[in-house]
């Protein structure tokens, strides 16, 4: 595997300062983003939808942590019907694979009859979890994975679940937007905690 251009120490420092990387599909370059409005989830007040609750009762999906990080991040980077372009470049994939090997980046997988059908990945630092992306090849697969993540974070004592930039899907899941200054105050508080993700 070629050495990633994104330095890991630089990446971690950027997250502490409220930045995250995104690749531009047009020029392939990676840029640091820090939006004025930040999307996040309330770990304590999150409630799954009725459909997710129904699927959980039926045990429709088997949900795992860190069982196949590489497949999850590549699933997130794959083109979608609604959006053929992706901000997850090869450079970003390689950086997060390295973070995963360091025990900092994690995946949540949804399996249906032994097949990976959805999931998400993100970065855990202190008492903050930075959600990066999710994908689904079967209805509600990523939502069930997300539901498991939230309850895991709640059980572990995490304070912040960052969703970065608001979109209709995140809003439907319950994300809210706050000002950058408010986000940074919450982030600073969360980073003081020492939590082992798994």
Rg (CA only): 16 Å
Major sheet: arrangement of strands: 4-5-6-7-8-3-9
CATH fold title of one domain: Aminopeptidase
Structural class: alpha+beta
Low-confidence stretches: none
Number of H- or I-type helical stretches: 7
Strand content: 25-35%
Q: How many angstroms does the end-to-end distance come to?
A: 26 Å
Shape, principal axes of CA atoms: globular
Helix and strand sequence: HEEEHEHHEEEHEHEH
The CATH architecture designation of one domain is 3-Layer(aba) Sandwich
- Let me know the largest β-sheet: 7 strands, mixed
Q: Write down how many β-strands occur, each being a DSSP E stretch of 2 or more residues.
A: 9
Helix proportion range? 25-40%
| Assigned CATH class of one domain | Alpha Beta
Kindly report the name of the CATH homologous superfamily of one domain: Leucyl/phenylalanyl-tRNA-protein transferase, C-terminal domain
> What average pLDDT do the residues reach?
94
Detail the topology: elements first, then pairings.
Elements: H1 8-16, E1 20-23, E2 30-33, E3 37-41, H2 50-57, E4 62-65, H3 69-77, H4 90-101, E5 105-112, E6 115-125, E7 128-136, H5 141-156, E8 160-164, H6 168-173, E9 176-179, H7 180-191
Parallel strand pairs: 7-8
Antiparallel strand pairs: 1-2, 3-8, 3-9, 4-5, 5-6, 6-7
